[in-house]
Amino acid sequence: MEEKVSINISARHVHLTKKNIHKLFGHSLHVKRMLNQVGQYAAEEVVTIKNGDKKIENVRVIGPERKYNQVEISACDARMLEIKPPVRKSGNLDGAEMITIETDKGSVMGNFAIIAERHVHFSPSDALKYGVEDEELLKLEIGGIKPGEVEVHAKVSNDGFYEAHLDTDDANAFLITPGDIGVLKK
User: pLDDT grade, residue 1 (50/70/90)?
Assistant: First the structure.
């Protein structure tokens, strides 16, 4: 397999349960813009994430509501907040770092913070087409003026839209602009 794939940048963001959406905002989320992943959107709502007196404001909430609370940050964000979250697949909060999520209406605290592993989204039909399985380790070759290659995990889901997701640290290291094209290899 050697296939072209669009690269998108996954900036810091938060996923929330219905209960905590209502606690933090007092209403349901409002769509700011739809994302490529089917049914997912950047919400109008933002939060502050905190560890003690260290904080990052205006962190976007991603909808729709989830069955878990999760804060996805970069390693640079983690250093600024003075926490050491593990690198995990989204939804895997095993060993997640303690962090507070707050708005002017309230706050929630828990082991929510992770650094998301690099991944490529596939729908089940795309996974079949490209011959990959969920969690399979692949290589992403990145061109441009700072070329290189990184390992990425296949993430197969019903709402998957075929594209690679790198966090802001990785994107900055390779001078990536959203929509740049990489080459995916087995």
Answer: confident
